[in-house]
Amino acid sequence: xxxxxxxxxxxxxxxxxxxxxxxxxxxxxxxxxxxxxxxxxxxxxxxxxxxxxxxxxxxxxxxxxxxxxxxxxxxxxxxxxxxxxxxxxxxxxxxxxxxxxxxxxxxxxxxxxxxxxxxxxxxxxxxxxxxxxxxxxxxxxxxxxxxxxxxxxxxxxxxxxxxxxxxxxxxxxxxxxxxxxxxxxxxxxxxxxxxxxxxxxxxxxxxxxxxxxxxxxxxxxxxxxxxxxxxxxxxxxxxxxxxxxxxxxxxxxxxxxxxxxxxxxxxxxxxxxxxxxxxxxxxxxxxxxxxxxxxxxxxxxxxxxxxxxxxxxxxxxxxxxxxxxxxxxxxx
Length: 332
What we know:
globular
């Protein structure tokens, strides 16, 4: 008589999950532990998985934070978290998508008159520069060169990147972020196609952003004088520089907290924009929960301003800048 043997199911063995001590927790996960729990609750909610090795929402957030707080090697993150590299990859995708779902709750550009008025008042109180609601700039985020259309992603510094445009307010919160453009695309082209431009242009210079000389001056986007000719213009440029540096400071803070933004992001190209935006969202959350950015300083390269002007409002923009220069010089 033939004998049949039932297959023996091999018992699944889970790796030991590394526990960070109080002194190393923030270094590993980029937030204080109670704030990591807050992130898990806000972005992931209750965990409905009940299988033996299922990760809790807190563990999922920790894996994501470990990944973006590291140079971005999934194998090493897996060793730290006791999970396989493939699980890390799936978790990073899942968490970044869950965070991205709430981007409009955490990153908001002022659009209504009351919001514009509040943003202008906050900037005036903080920096004594009238009519400003924020600063604008782009930053290059390194990626692995894509196999298709790879040359489009080579920026002028000769590495593959995403050119990320962002604006920020006086409290160092990002108010908009666009991470969809290849590195070769100039800042001014991104701005011309920005969702922010039609909003702020409605206010005809009563609400303005500060930008560098790579942008064309307009009533709603004020740039410095390229060749200041007198004390009024020199004073304006000094004030402009002291105010506009806030966006550079925000870029530095988000890259300090999430060092993956300083290294080659090693995920599928289609996933990169959501991953980048997720880091910008978490920057704003860190401001909300007052999680201090006490990570080691990083050296950001100075971004050379390359002019690519296509200015449809040159006269109005110049006039508005001259008016602001006179106001600032009078109140010095």
